[in-house]
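U., I forgot to send this yesterday:
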Amino acid sequence: MASLPAEIFLHGGILLQTRVNNSEPLSFVLDSGGGSGFILDTRRARALGLELHSRDTFTGAGENGVEVAFANNVRITLPGVEFPSRTVAVISLNFLEPFAGRTLDGLFGYGLFSRYVVEIDYAAHVVNLYESQDYQYSGSGVFLPLTVEGEHFFVPARITMPGRDRIEGKFLIDTGAPMTTIILNRPFVERHNLLTLNGRRVLDRSFPGLGGETKQILARAAELQLGDLVIRQPTLSFSQDARGALASSEFDGIIGGELLRRFKVIFDPAHRQLILEPNAHFTEPYEHNYERHQFKS
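Result:
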């Protein structure tokens, strides 16, 4: 139905050019983990003269609460796609911009993913949108069962740590988490005593969420299984957050852009499936970026 040029940044982040109420082109992150239908940055909302109302607080990745307001009668358009006027969430994206290295005007969340089959071709830098009733996949990808809970998308996965038995979990698919392979939520880490695996610990504070700084211990798995896919030696991290999404026991962790960019990724929620088709990046090794990390004994 529509083919959208995408900018891929920071090993898996996705930016789409968007217009809001006939504005100049704006940069929106494609964020399957964002939850809300659409999110607009507070500064951009004010620059557009939008009236904000119904302020509230919610939690995301990071330990701080996130202040949110709402704006009515907002028209969002992509090349070849126009969404009906709607109410959007308005939050500050200031905290994310130093990490992204650019201005962020908003996020496409569940409102886009729930309306279309979303095909992310990381290698071609293209996002394709299809009507659910017309879509038929004909490639060689692996099909994973996709569940939708609270405007988020989850798949099952199996992780084998060195010297341990395989463990299973439910993982959020998060296209809005670049440079992230897998983060295991703190209750999952504690339930399986995973911190006892590490000697010298590397503390990572470089990944920000909407709720501010996150704290993670870096590690590496022996193997990750996603359906019939087997990924050897992927990097991962153990959340140390006491609050926020990465401290939740309602799911076990997130799978982010560092892994997803190695595939053509197809979200098909109408048929409850996620399709992963390996691309030319599939065989690249997984490595941590140690430049912003701290060591703990």
